[in-house]
Specification:
The chain contains three helices and twelve strands. It is an alpha+beta fold and 207 residues long. Helix 2 packs across helix 3.
């Protein structure tokens, strides 16, 4: 039992170290469309495509401005001409956020004039599209009104979570009485102390 406890704690420590060693996703580019709320609503099972600007090199996730109480499956395909350059899928259940982030296969080079196709899976309620109304002209000279959702291209930043620990702790410490960065580090110390005492108590009871 002592070995199992030690292995479990070691695995938790390793997992925390690995996660904090990674870099958070940062916005590398957008399609320059503002995210006005509720410009349109899409039914479950619907799909659509739109021109979405330039996709930066290194993109590993695409964030679209759509929201729902219980988000359906979201499938994205990014095309250049008629070729699929990357694609990805987000499972259902992404909640009520105003955006949904879909991981995609890393893009090795910058791609201009990307055409993004979005497909929503079955849903009990319409998905709110956040973006802006746009007007385009047809070859015959007619003006067509449409809607484009905001798109953000994400890629890992240059700094790891370790290097951002102090700034994150500072933000978490705001709005308290008393307030300050030291509160966060105090809570971490208390959590470690509680875990240590709980482990010692468990080992004592087993003996």
């Amino acid at each position: 039992m002592q070995i199992a406890l030690a292995v479990g704690l070691a695995l938790v420590a390793i997992a925390i170290t690995v996660v904090l060693s990674r870099s958070p996703l940062t916005v590398a580019g957008t399609n320059s469309i503002p995210a006005f709320r509720g410009v349109a609503y899409a039914k479950g099972g619907s799909s659509g495509c739109q021109m979405s600007g330039t996709m930066p090199q290194g993109t590993t996730a695409i964030r679209i401005s759509a929201s729902a109480n219980t988000g359906p499956t979201v499938t994205l395909k990014a095309l250049s001409g008629g070729q699929v350059i990357t694609q990805g899928k987000r499972p259902a259940g992404w909640g009520i956020d105003e955006t949904v982030t879909v991981p995609v296969k890393r893009v090795s080079r910058t791609i201009p004039n990307v055409r993004l196709c979005v497909t929503f899976g079955p849903a009990l309620e319409p998905v709110e599209i956040n973006g802006a109304e746009v007007r385009t002209s047809t070859p015959s000279g007619k003006t067509v009104r449409g809607v484009r959702l905001r798109v953000e291209y994400l890629r890992p930043g240059h700094a790891s979570w370790w290097s951002l620990a102090s700034s994150v702790a500072h933000r978490m410490g705001l709005g308290h009485a008393p307030s300050g960065t030291w509160i966060v580090f105090l809570l971490i110390a208390l959590m470690i102390t509680v875990a240590t005492l709980a482990s010692r108590l468990l080992l004592r009871e087993l003996r």
